[in-house]
Amino acid sequence: MDQELNGGQERPYVTAKASKHGGGRKTLSTKKRYIINALLFVAMLAIGQGLIDGDFISRYQTTVIEQIGIYIIMAVSLNVATGYLGQLPLGHAGFMSVGGYSCAIFIIRMMPVFDLNMRSFVTGEPMAVVLFVVGVLFGGLMAGLSGLIIGIPALRLKGDYLAIITLGFAEIIRVVMLNIDGVVGFELTGGAKGLTGIPSYTNFLNTFIVVGIVLFLIHTMMKSRHGRAILAIRDNEIAAEATGVNTTYYKTLAFVVSAFFAGVGGALYAGCIGVMAPAKFGFMKSIEILVMVVLGGMGSMLGSVLSATVLTILPEALRAFADYRMVVYAVVLILVMIFRPQGLLGTYDFSMGDFLEKLINGELFRGKSKQKSEEVEANA
Amino acid sequence: MANAMSRRNFVKLSGIAAAGLGGASILTACGGGSSSSDDSSIKVGLMGPYSGDVAQYGLAVRNGAQLYVKQLNDKGGINNKKIDLDTQDEKGDATEAKNVYDKMVEDGVVAIIGDVTSTPSIAVAQASVNDNMPLVSASATAADFIKYGKNAFRACITDPYQGKLMADFAAKQGYKTYGAIFNSGGDYEVGVKDAFVKEAKSKGLSSVADPQGYSAGDTDFKAQLTTIISGNPDCIFCPNYYQDDGKIVTQARQLGYKGVFLGADGWSNIVGGDQDYASAADLEGCYYDCSFTVNNDDEKVQQFIKDYKAEYNADPSNFCALGYDAAMVVMTAIEQVEKDGKYKPSDDDYKQAIIDAISSGSVDGVTGTIKYDGTGDPVKPTLVITFKDGKESVFDTIEAS
């Protein structure tokens, strides 16, 4: 579906650019761009896995890298609602917990049915892989569903009000996780003591395959008609509505997509940590993810990826400074916000295809044409 | 903003800053000499929350454990090897705890003292099974902590054990009716309350109202207390942390309740401080169970308090004592393994030997004699503490059954 939607989308842009530089400019077709990106991505996965197998990357580093992948998903998915849709939801951790709990409970309940044990996920039995895929999708769907339930009333509000209502809903989700056992009458989420004994079904490879898929899906969605409609709503809701964009529908769509991928991220998180406790998904977790998006630049996918990476590594890299590390973390955030209020990358996004085109046309190191502002360049 | 930088400049600048930071952290890491265990030292991990919401417990445990290791090293260490404590903060977060655990394994620790709070402890316990890493927690009271493998031990008594113990105590005191108020969002509070309710039922105590839950962060408990007090129970079970307990007791007294409050070890520290609640009169005649109190006349305990004061210039809390004992459990086991001299710290069998030494050994800790009868749960005595004129005193010592 995405290919079909996308097929006609990038061409006009490329030709427009080509014409600007004169007729002789070589261009890359959308198909080629995707193939190149896919190959690069597979190569990166292979190199990463090779380094892990060869013990060049230690287990500690692997765990941190997995968490980077998970937070990339979280930041990129929140970016759909904040950066692209232009709303300020403060309840992303709620969706993360819904996804995490649903996936973990689903997998724990299904393990005896398929005769799997905790080790099956590490050794990679085929049934375990299937269960992982279904579980993660299930987690995403449940989060998407709660996103829909929350989104329909919430998106009638704007700005601060939306922020507060989503914050409230995330708290509701947390309290439900805490108390649902007593209501349903059997052990489901484990209440305050948390859900324990989750098999470690997350590893480097499957985390980053999911990261790749999520990035691809969000990228293609934003390039499609639906994505353009979402961007139009961000830029001017009244104008978008006047030109026939069904704003309620698209706002809800973006919100649900954002929640779905947050659920996917949560599902991976549950497998990575092995314990889920409602207290971990409070307000601060939502803020943590929002900080990643804002720091990276709202509306920039690369920005979200970069800042999720940096902000996950930072506390770990600063471990050597012991007690001062949280201070350093805060100082970094403050400095960025003072000197770079639009985020690390603003709305700039990197495009491998454009980069290669510039390379084959020998434009890369030619003097930079300044007449185009960064923002125009960004949406390439 | 006027002084906003361009992206290019900012990226350049942050690149330089990142390189500087990275370089500095590498230097610190090297300078710290954090090599794994060798002939002159044995590396042991110590993890806990030293920043964040639950830092007070982590820091208390850390102080206790560090004091024991310092005393041990001053005496020449174990088998002429110094104990090198690898202390890491996990902020009370399960994710960080797992990272810290992986890092410690990588750094070659032979055993870990930790973790402190329940959820991170369980995350670590689950991860540690595959490595067979000896794990001794000072304060992970959640029942599940020792469920995953034979490598996990704790120095403290569990939530359910405390609930049961206090219910037995209530029955022994001749109370017939009870009410309960607890933080419904805390695993500790819920765990203790559930066990209390179960045991109270089997001992024939009747409840005047359903156990009343409140949310974390509440400061007004009068609605719940009114419900309980209207049934006029002989005792109110209040197994929460001391900040809440103090307010609950005072508010209950204001509502005219004259009966007894029963608590669990979250009550330690309730006396003292500049609070305008939990006055001496309010607390008179209440009871709670605990492993440690500074008002214990035991010689060992008084020596520990003296040493602790000399080191940190403060009175040790329950958590400090448990940290001290957890370190003692680990070090005694290492001592045993070193004495046998069969394995080197880099061997995998060394870890198994430590686990065996812990489960078969017995240590004389400041919170009582601790031994493990084939499980990760300690068999140790528990103190029941009461208040008289605003002073705590040991009311009874209940031996492990």
Automatic annotation (TrEMBL), chain A:
UniProt keyword annotations, A-Z: Cell membrane, Membrane, Transmembrane, Transmembrane helix
Membrane topology according to the record: Multi-pass membrane protein
GO terms of molecular function: branched-chain amino acid transmembrane transporter activity
Ranges that cross the membrane: 34-52, 64-86, 93-114, 126-149, 161-180, 200-218, 253-277, 289-314, 326-345
InterPro entries given in the database record: ABC_transp_permease, LivM-like
Entry-linked Pfam families: BPD_transp_2
Compartment(s) of residence: Cell membrane
Signal peptide segment: none
GO terms for cellular component: plasma membrane
Coiled coil: none
Keyword Membrane: yes
Name this protein carries in UniProt: Branched-chain amino acid ABC transporter permease
Organism of origin: Olsenella porci
From TrEMBL, chain B:
InterPro entries reported in the protein's UniProt record: BCAA_transport, Leu-bd, Leu_Ile_Val-bd, Peripla_BP_I, TAT_signal, TAT_signal_bac_arc
Domain Leucine-binding protein, chain residue ranges per copy: 41-385
Keyword match Signal: yes
Keywords for this protein: Amino-acid transport, Signal, Transport
One GO process term, biological-process aspect: amino acid transport
CDD domains: PBP1_ABC_LivK_ligand_binding-like (cd06347)
Domain of life: Bacteria
Pfam families per the UniProt record, alphabetical: Peripla_BP_6
Family per record: Belongs to the leucine-binding protein family.
Name of the featured protein: ABC transporter substrate-binding protein
Species: Olsenella porci
